[in-house]
Specification:
With 108 residues, the chain is mainly α. The protein has helices at 2-25, 28-52, 58-79, 87-106. It is a multi-pass membrane protein.
């Protein structure tokens, strides 16, 4: 269950990064709503990370949490914000995913 909570925490990190990106693209009240979403997902992400680290090793949990956030944010950048998808970006994202899986496999 703690791994599931950690995954949701990582996805919430992706969501708050997405809200931040959208807030930069908007003005007025719409921008305020995106910043509110950013704050909400930030709080949710941190709360779930804290909950997950009650049972999981902090080093592993933090690495997985940031890895999910990094991978998800890069993929969102490529898909939604039209950032470049060069060979090396994809290569290093793939190695990051392999590292996250490796941490999960070797953790108790």
């Amino acid at each position: 269950m703690n791994w599931f909570i950690l995954i949701i925490a990582g996805l919430s990190e992706v969501a708050f990064a997405f809200c931040l990106g959208k807030a930069k693209e908007t003005i007025g009240n719409e921008s305020i709503y995106w910043y509110a979403g950013f704050l909400g997902f930030l709080i949710l992400s941190m709360a779930l990370l804290i909950k997950a680290t009650n049972q999981l090793p902090i080093g592993t949990a933090y690495a997985v949490w940031t890895g999910i956030g990094a991978v998800g944010t890069v993929l969102l950048g490529i898909i939604v914000f039209k950032e470049p998808a060069s060979f090396w970006r994809i290569f290093f994202i793939t190695t990051l995913i392999a590292s996250i899986i490796g941490l999960k496999v070797v953790s108790n």
